[in-house]
Design a protein that fits this description.
The protein is built from four helices and five strands; from the N terminus they run E-H-E-H-E-H-E-E-H. With 108 residues, the protein is of the alpha/beta class. It has one domain: Glutaredoxin, CATH 3.40.30.10. The chain has a five-stranded mixed beta sheet, sandwiched between helices. The longest helix has 16 residues, at 33-48. The termini are far apart. The mean pLDDT is 95.
Length: 108
């Protein structure tokens, strides 16, 4: 996962909220089967959008406060942040093209 960064709560503000480009945040946990299913898609999106998008993962078991502050109740939850705000949100496994469309809109 060379293009996907694992974050924790202390890095979230600097790496996501204050970042100038759109950031795709994957809220996940190691025990979550659907999270493991979507992980290769998240990695592909990170590689294909390198330079236009930052992609990070947050383990909800290690960072429960960030997850709860954004109302994450089911995982995987994917959020696109831009300018410190959530501009799109997806719950559950999503088709790659749907996520790419949201990324393109965030970059627009």
């Amino acid at each position: 996962m060379a293009n996907v960064t694992e974050l924790n709560e202390k890095d979230f503000e600097t790496e996501v909220l204050q970042f100038s480009q759109p950031v795709l945040v994957d809220f996940w946990a190691p025990w979550c089967g659907p999270c493991r299913m979507i992980a290769p898609v998240v990695e592909e999106l990170a590689t294909e959008n390198a330079g236009n998008l930052k992609v990070v993962k947050i383990n909800i078991d290690d960072s429960p406060n960030v997850a709860s502050s954004y109302g994450v109740s089911s995982i995987p939850t994917l959020m696109i942040f831009k300018g410190g705000e959530v501009v799109d949100r997806f719950v559950g496994v999503q088709p790659k093209n749907r996520l790419q469309t949201a990324i393109d809109q965030a970059n627009g």
